[in-house]
Write a structure and sequence with these properties.
Largest sheet: 5 strands, parallel
Helix content: 40-55%
Oligomer: single chain
Radius of gyration: 13 Å
Shape: globular
Distance between the termini: 17 Å
Order of helices and strands: EHEHEHEHEH
Length: 122
């Protein structure tokens, strides 16, 4: 299994990578920008993508990334990992194609549970 983590915070990438390694994910790719994330997606075809919404390319640029990805791929599961708990933002992310949404201040256990659910199509 391959995962792609897209986030502009190195500590978030490191934490997610460690949790995914503990879950037995064989290949973990990561990108600090949406453009690099899309390029890695095209090269690696990961099984699951975790993406942040607020990236240097603009506030809630992650929504545009999800929308763009869904044009090319309707099936790869996407888990949003965000600091935005506003229900309107959560709804927008799910409307444009995210399969799951979890806040960055959640526990490691909840992240792994959400990742498994999204991976398994739930």
């Amino acid at each position: 299994m391959q995962a792609l983590i897209i986030d502009d915070h190195p500590i978030v990438i490191q934490g997610c990578r460690r949790l995914l390694e503990d879950m037995g994910v064989e290949e973990i790719h990561y990108a600090a920008s949406l453009a690099d994330g899309f390029r890695l997606y095209r090269q690696k075809h990961p099984d699951v993508i975790s993406v942040g919404l607020s990236m240097p390319s603009g506030v809630l640029g992650g929504l545009s990334f999800i929308r763009r990805l869904r044009i090319h791929d309707e099936r790869t599961p996407i888990l949003v990992l965000s600091m935005h708990g506003d229900p309107v933002i959560v709804s927008r992310a799910l409307e444009v194609g995210a399969n799951g949404y979890i806040l960055k201040d959640t526990s490691s256990e909840e992240f792994m549970k959400a990742f498994r659910k999204v991976r398994d199509g739930k």
